[in-house]
Amino acid sequence: MRILIKNAMVVDPPQSTAIRDVVILDTVIEAVYDSSEISGAGNVLPEPDRVIDAAGMLLTPGLIDVHVHLREPGQEYKETIETGLTAAAKGGFTAVCSMPNTIPVNDNAQVTSFILSQAEKVRGARVYPAGAITKGSKGAMTDCPWPIPVSCAGPWSIANP
User: Fold this and answer.
1) Residue 70 contacts by C-beta under 8 Å, 6 or more apart in sequence?
2) Architecture, CATH, for domain 2-59
3) Residue 155 pLDDT exceeds 70
4) Is the backbone of residue 42 left (phi > 0), alpha (psi -120 to 50) or beta?
5) pLDDT tens digit string along 36-84?
6) Tell me, what's the pLDDT at 97?
7) β strands within the chain, DSSP E
8) Domain residue spans of the chain
9) CB-based contacts of 19: which residues, under 8 Å, 6+ apart?
């Protein structure tokens, strides 16, 4: 499916922020044009399946929230990995870094693996779990070798009374 997003304020850090048209083929950005380029002489694009007028809207690269509290495991009554990642994606975030203040604390590869396996079941943002730098977030160093041999965002220190 080819989608044409017209008149969006495109935020493109390597380039500049400007009003542009973006062509998406299936799930891949095929082209980004100044609006005048698309209608200019010699620039004939295949007919899009869908046109979205994004005048007055921002089109940005995926955002990353580096400080979220997913609360699972242990505090699912507050939020689950599924609800947190779904909400993040709906808000325009493609990835989040979850803090280790879960129950049990994410201070070992087993908890990190659990968080990652739960996240795989969700069609939402990606999760990069932060590992606690101290055992139980109580001050004594963890037995966990750094870097952790699973996909962890890195050590994080959170005071836990």
Assistant:
1) 79, 80, 81, 84, 85, 96, 98, 99, 102, 115, 127
2) Roll (2.30)
3) no
4) left
5) 665 555 566 778 999 999 999 999 888 899 999 999 999 999 999 999 9
6) 93
7) 2-10, 18-25, 28-34, 50-53, 58-59, 63-68, 93-98, 126-132, 154-156
8) 2-59, 63-156
9) 7, 8, 9, 10, 34, 35
